[in-house]
Amino acid sequence: MARGNWTRVEEFILMSFSSLPTEIQSLLFLTFLIIYLVTLMGNSLIILVTLADPMLHSPMYIFLNLSFLEIGFNLVIVPKMLGTLLASDTTISFLGCATQMYFSFFFGGAECFLLATMAYDRYVAICSPLHYAVIMNQRTCAKLAIASWFPGFPVATVQTTWLFSFPFCGTNKVNHFFCDSPPVLRLVCADTALFEIYAIVGTILVIMIPCLLILCSYTRIAATVLKIPSAKGKHKAFSTCSSHLLVVSLFYVSLSLIYFWPKSNNSPESKKLLSLSYTVVTPMLNPIIYSLRKNEVKNALGRTFRKKLILNNF
């Protein structure tokens, strides 16, 4: 139904990587499919091993619902992207686009606060080791982990509902591989100044507040570690944070380049590549960097498989 220049949009077209040759798209499909399967298997393995092995039920491993987040993030974005590459199924319904945007905001916001919670855990472990078991008891850890999921709700609900209440006109082509806010906003034919102010403020709050909490935690950690007299002690203290720092760096660098880099310096194609880093690549690397490289998890994997073999023999 058209009314003047306003059009009731019932579906969008995801441009994805349609500008690339078919051969390159096929190669991308195979690459992303492998990454997707590795992500699902790696994160699922971490969840199953953590639940199966009582020795991993220490406070830090309650925060492995990061694996749940990564699986959710992937399920929201990657299957549709693979469809656009393989079958040229580039259409997505109005409701489907809104749903995809909602959950990308929700999972992204939750991950920001979960990473901040993990930083606090490391701060307590290094700066107050004698009180760690009391402060970070399982009940507290469970509350912190669950609370990390809630900030994403208001941001996702308000921003998605507001954006999709605008009228759309002209083209319905979204120049991205998923329904992210900036490319969808370009299709709106109304004054979006107030919405853009809200979007900027909301993004800053969701990204920068956890980032500042992480910086504060690691500033205190660094000050504590520098007071340790032995080099071996310093190395051991820093090694307990290395996995978390890698995860934080991967996530925040790519996210900041997308949402805070000047628009004039970011072509749509470069934004797609940057988006791949936090929507596709980082979820695959997280279980490897954060968990599978830890001796506790490696030992737990060994124990779990040995138990499985013993049970199968009987």
TrEMBL record:
GO terms for cellular component: plasma membrane. Belongs to the G-protein coupled receptor 1 family. This is Olfactory receptor. The keyword Transmembrane helix applies. Its main location: membrane. Keywords: Cell membrane, G-protein coupled receptor, Membrane, Olfaction, Receptor, Sensory transduction, Transducer, Transmembrane, Transmembrane helix. It is found in: Cell membrane. Putative odorant or sperm cell receptor. The keyword Cell membrane applies. It comes from Neomonachus schauinslandi. The chain crosses the membrane at residues 24-49, 61-82, 102-120, 141-164, 197-216, 237-261, 273-292. It is a multi-pass membrane protein. CDD domains: 7tmA_OR10A-like. Pfam families: 7tm_4 (PF13853). InterPro entries: GPCR_Rhodpsn, GPCR_Rhodpsn_7TM, Olfact_rcpt. GO terms for molecular function: G protein-coupled receptor activity; olfactory receptor activity. Residues 42-290 form the G-protein coupled receptors family 1 profile domain.
